[in-house]
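Hmm, how's this folded?
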Amino acid sequence: MHELRRIVGYLGRYRTDAILGMLLVVIESAFEMVIPILMADIIDVGVANRDLDFIFRQGTYMGICAVLALITGLLYARFAARAAYGLGAHLRAAEYERVQAYSFANLDRFETSSLVTRMTTDVTVIQNALNAGFRPMVRGPVMLIIGFGLAFYLNGELALVFCAVVPVMAIAMAVIVRHVGPLYGVLQRTVDKLNDVVQEMLTAVRAVKAYVRGDYECEEFRAVNEGLAATSERTFRLAVLNMPVLYVSMYTATTLIMWFGGQMILGGTLEVGELTGFLSYVMQILNSLIMISNVFLLLTRSLASVHRISEVLDEPVDLTSPESALTEVPDGRVEFRDVSFKYRADARENVLEHISLNIPAGSTVGILGGTGSGKTSLVQLIARLYDATEGQVLVGGHDVRDYDLVALRDAVAVVLQKNVLFSGTVRENLRWGNAEAADEEILEACRRARVDEFLDRLPGGLDYDLGQGGVNVSGGQKQRLCIARALLKRPKVIIFDDSTSAVDMATDAQIRAALAELTGVTKIIIAQRVNSVESADQIVVLDDGRVDGVGTHEELLAHNKIYREIYTSQTYTPEGEGERAATPQPDGPLPAEAQPGEPSLRAATGAQGAEGGER
């Protein structure tokens, strides 16, 4: 109930509409409940005495009540729709804003497909429950109470029939709701699985076609789809049992009342008009019970969705800005002080172990290492995408935990390992870096990132539509656009996470030369190719989450075994075909494990991270 009250709290300014809707339902029900009394008087008084004036007068009153009930019903529909769809809009907005505040660790706890379902299907379930259930939820109890009162007012003896029927109906409903409730949660999780399969197929549709796996994907979808159908069938097969139970109870009660009422009419203790009016209240009461039972089923299903939405809203955000947070990053100094890190608190081993580094402001630092060595994990701590498990990460001389998150991330630009572009034009995508950037600034960033090489060939230039996810440009062009976007932020620290892997070596060299012109910006470059970092002020070699060496290209080539293995594997030409490398070889013989032609497997593949690979 706490979760339900919390969800209702998101009505916000639509709370007034909900309250007015409830009042209108009560008024509508009151008008409808007066009509049977007027009808009973017409039969017992007007028809019995052949008093046409009385009949017309009472009939007019009945017509007025019916019109007023219609008007209040129409007004209710308007206010209820506003309240229901307003609540749905507020819930979606609240979930979306909450997800935007999530850290990477928070996002790791939810499947993307599940978040989509919670923002769409689950909100729609609650929205429909309010829209469809609001009227019966209010009208049912009101009609039940008024109907019972007026039924006892007309004839207390006949009203006792309900006392025998209602408990049977209540017990049957309780049993049905108890068994159906858990199935609704299973149903929503099955919808998650269906969305997951669809999302995965659409994301990887090119790979599916390339490997001719369409039949396999169709089979996967068929299995999940049939599972959803089976779960839905099992759920609603139980849910619809309430109607037979209610109708059996309703017709049993009606038959008993007509039987006992007929006996009382024959005995002269009951008028025909009274029995007619009483039967009207019987139908009203039983209909109210049907409405209440349907409301229980709607609530049971919506409570499953309420719980799922509450999980999103109640998820504690791992990373937040502290009170009195620093709002200005002085410079681009970066320091790691005995930093260890793992993605989950229950992980057996750390991804990073006792990292200590000092990166001066304005310097260029390369990070090299095998797959799974922790390169991406290391730089994600700088922008506080994750928090270090142990130790401190400092930017500008202050712990990153002391900064306002927005200020820190504005000062630290990250060109992600996976390139992300959005639907829209080139200009709109680049202005993610700086929403106020003029075209001159955009073109300058494009020049540094070598976007200008292909920008002129795009129809419309900066106004060219990139399509969903940037499907209208190549992988290398995506990378260069992402670099230009990061440059527009004018950050104090800029991180390139293997951001030129799809770019040819000549263009890579041009980009590096243009970046070297940037002053006052700390540049951290994660790369797989030695030539991408060999001109850096210092190079950090990572191995299995630990720093194996720090130095310049020449120093590491002379003294670091792993760096020498990587270098040899990338520059050696077998059997003397051409020059071995443009960079001079170190003095003296190479160690045995790095002899030409036999680069070690460790250098080629890297050590596997403790969490199953580099993130």
